[in-house]
Amino acid sequence: MPTTIPAPSQAYVHALKVLDRYKTEGVTRAESDDFIKGAINELDNDTGKFAEDIGQVSTWAIQVDEAFDRVTRGLTNLVTEFGSDFPPLNDFLGEWKGYNQRWITHLALSRDVASEHVSVLQRFDQGFLDMVGMIQTDQDRQDVIVEFGAFANEDHDRSQEMSDGFMNLKTDIEDFVVRFDAYIEKTSAELQEQATQLQKQIEKLKSLVQDGTFAPVRSIELPLKLCGKIKDATVALLDSAEAAETMVGVVGIAVAGTVLAVLIAERLVNIIALGNSQRELEDVNSKQEGLAKIKSEFDGLRPDIALICAKLVLFAEIWSSVQDQTVHFQEQLKIGLDQVNNERFRLEIELARKLCKPLIDGLNKYTEQLVNHPAR
Predict the structure, then answer these.
(1) Which parts form a coiled-coil structure per UniProt (predicted)?
(2) Which of 36, 138, 166, 181 could form a disulfide with 309 if both were Cys (CB 3.0 to 4.6 A apart)?
């Protein structure tokens, strides 16, 4: 019985209505304040889960790295074994190796960017945001505004380089998989047709070698029931010594120039043809299995690469988030000294500081796991 799709909950229906209101009317200041307070409360009660969730990205990254390695080795083996039969596989392998190298490069860059972001977040929290709490005079406020401006103008371009790298790689791999899937599908259909024809040929040859009907082989029409005819010919030629027929048959004696020699020779032709056809079928089946396996590896990698690239792009956006918040706080301080004691401003500063810790801890976990992951 098929699984039924559950009806949306009342809470979900209500949430959609509220979201529609947000889009048309915006969020009230009270709702925004409540959300920030709720987020601060969640962070105050955090037992390390947020950092673990961030660090978990390293596990996914390692799994994708291992999947890349499996696909690369699988495709290499496929080319080694069947590359001469399927020349396009060589081109696919060369292209894939390029993607694999780009992944390795970007993954190493993500580790460096994560380490850099740890330093940025520590300075943001313990340096710049801490300054806000120390503002006593208008000169203090002016000094912090200058410091915020210098911090916001720092160059951390590698974040954008990492983001662009992963997103471009994701796009290129998705395009590659579509083309590779189409090739696999076309080639598999051709192999299946070959297998079907070979199986029919094998069944026909089996009947010939045993006692079935003989069909044209190499465009030569021959008598029916070869095995039976061989026996009949042997008995006839032995005449009164027909009792020796079995022994003669086992030994395989065929006197040159006799009908028996012709019949045995033709039977041998069919045995050889049968063996060749069976080996051809084994080869076709092996190719089908190889293509199916590599397709399975790609099918498993595709959603993984999409997920990890999306997560790592978020990592890359940490600096832009810090930068935007720094500019926002700078603009708020430009309003005047009274802004330092504004409740909303203080809530935003508190939330920013409390977000830094799980981010720092999670990025440290990410970096540590990648450092400990064997290079390949």
Answers:
(1) 184-211
(2) 166
The 10s digit of each residue's pLDDT in 23-82 is 888 888 888 888 888 888 988 898 888 888 888 888 888 888 888 888 888 888 878 877
252 burial via Cβ count (<10 Å: 0-12, 13-18, 19+) = exposed
CA distance 276 to 271: 9
pLDDT at residue 26, as a whole number: 82
C-beta separation of 113 from 107 below 8 A: no
Give the model's pLDDT for residue 60: 84
The whole-angstrom separation of Cα 333 and Cα 324 is 14
Residue carrying the six token digits 């889960």: 49
Which position has the token pair 């499996």?
70
Note the pLDDT of residue 269: 56
The domain segmentation of the chain, as residue ranges, is: 11-43, 44-202+305-372, 207-280
Which of 84, 69, 71 minimizes the C-alpha distance to 294?
71
For 256, list phi and psi in degrees, rounded to 5.
-55, 140
Checking if the pLDDT of 332 tops 80, the result is yes
- DSSP line for 104-131: HHHHHHHHHHHHHHHHHHHHIIIIIIHH
pLDDT of 235 over the 50 cut: no
Angle subtended by helix axes 88-123 and 259-316, to nearest 10: 20
